[in-house]
Amino acid sequence: MRIAIIIEPTCNLCGECVSYCPTRVYKIEENKLTYNSEKCIYCRACEPLCPQKAIKIKVEHNTLKHKQITTTKYF
Ligand code: SF4
Ligand code: SF4
How many of the other CB atoms lie within 10 Å of CB of 12? Predict the structure, then answer.
């Protein structure tokens, strides 16, 4: 499972997500919001918290890789 974090341009760098995220995914550096999605535990607390509704958290499943593994098993 891979987590994708999408920040919409409506983000106004208020810093709420930076202080709230339990695993410190977000940082504000040089007037930009940066994030490390590898630290995200998918609690989804930051989505409703953002006053600008600028955060979208998604799960990406790698189904192709899964298919390749199961196919190999039967040959
Ligand atoms: S809470 Fe929303 S508006 Fe504030 S810094 Fe985070 S993404 Fe930007
Ligand atoms: S979903 Fe949870 S862990 Fe992931 S960035 Fe948001 S608050 Fe942090």
Answer: 11
Atom number in ligand 1 closest to CA 46: 1
Given ligand 2 and candidates 40, 42, 47, 49, which is best to mutate, with the most ligand atoms within 8 Å of its CB?
Answer: 40
- Vertex 41 angle, CA 37 and 44, to 5°: 90
Q: Give this prediction's pTM.
A: 0.82
Q: Dihedral sign, CA of 56, 61, 34, 49?
A: positive
Q: Does pLDDT of 65 surpass 80? A: no
Say which residue the tokens 């998918």 belong to.
42
Domains of the chain, first to last? 2-73 (3.30.70.20)
Closest residue to atom 3 of ligand 2, CA basis:
40
